[in-house]
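In response to reviewer comment 3 from the previous cycle, which asked for concrete evidence that the modeling workflow produces usable outputs, we include below a single protein chain processed end to end. The sequence was submitted unchanged, and the resulting structure tokens are shown without manual editing.
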Amino acid sequence: MSEAEATNQAIEPYITEDSGTNDYVEATYECEKINSIGENIEFDEDEVNNESILGKVFDTPDDAYTFYNDYSFLHGFGIRRDDTIKNPKTNEPFRKIYVCNKEGFKRMDKNASSENEKKRRRDVRTGCQAKLRITRQEDGKWVETFSNVVDVTSKQCADVLSEKRKQHKGNEFYGLIKHFQYKTLVDSDQYFVVDLSDDGYPRNIFWADGRSRDAYTKFRDVVVFDVTYMTNKFKMPFAPFTGVNHHGQSILFGGALLENEKEETFEWLFEHFLKCMFNKYLKEIITDQDKAMRNAIKKVFPNTRHRFSSWHIMKHETEHLRSYVSRYSDFQETHKQWVNSDTIEQFEARWEVMCNKYELESNCWISDMYNQRIHWVKPFLTDTFLLV
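The workflow returned the following structure tokens.
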């Protein structure tokens, strides 16, 4: 069983030390051991002084412990061993955690009075959350991991990000509002809006400056809307609205940061884009083939001509046509002729030939593209600017 698989099953924490008196004794020993040997410590100070220890790899847990012991010395705190988590099937340890000696809070003995407890020892626990968590990889190495899950999926990342936003909504929102308030001082025509959740944290943000709004009134013939830009590994879409001016130069009409790519999110964004742009409808829009986006465009921009980006289509062609190309030697040429049909009649006739000759399934990608032909086939777009 791999370590990632083990984390998806019930794990049994194995406490290496008792969390009562023994904790205090070991933590004190670590601090005294470091302080007593002083200048005789042998380690690479430049290495352990590096704040970026996330993802650091160790050969053994002892190496990790030694590193964190040296690291804590340079940063003025002591450490202790905390948990060892074992694989429930093999009973072998696959995760170890080392924490600050001030982690948690002291447990009071129910049979001892508080006065006697204070006389017996001082309270060193303050709830410090500093820790080093290492996880065993398939190659036997141990890597420092911030999360309890080694192979984190994009959905788990999104869930973590959403929770972090809730926890830090004050700081995040304050900084955002300050930025836009400053911009408004120098640009009174700036427009921005923030979509808040029921809990009060920002989910979606849209903004456009005065220059962009003015440009839209002059060059709104064709707008390109793209959400393929991702700001980080959490895959938060950055969605710019762009167009072309009379010099053939790309111009920005506005931008947005979105929580997700659901239909209701796109509806919110398009409605505010329309409001921002003085309720002047865009004439034509180019996007990818996303269904949620397509439905939102129909609702908010019912009279706008909608075309799929040829770049996105070609990007997916190789993946979806591979099986047919390998099976039929002439498929690629036939498909090319079908795509480049000059008339609607020719396009439909060639489609019938393809269906019969290559046994195209009704639910395949090509069939889906055929059903959406009004959004990308040239003969269906002869009355638009989108042929260029």
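DSSP finds 14 helices and 14 strands in the chain. We consider this sufficient to address the reviewer's concern, and the full set will be provided in the supplementary archive.
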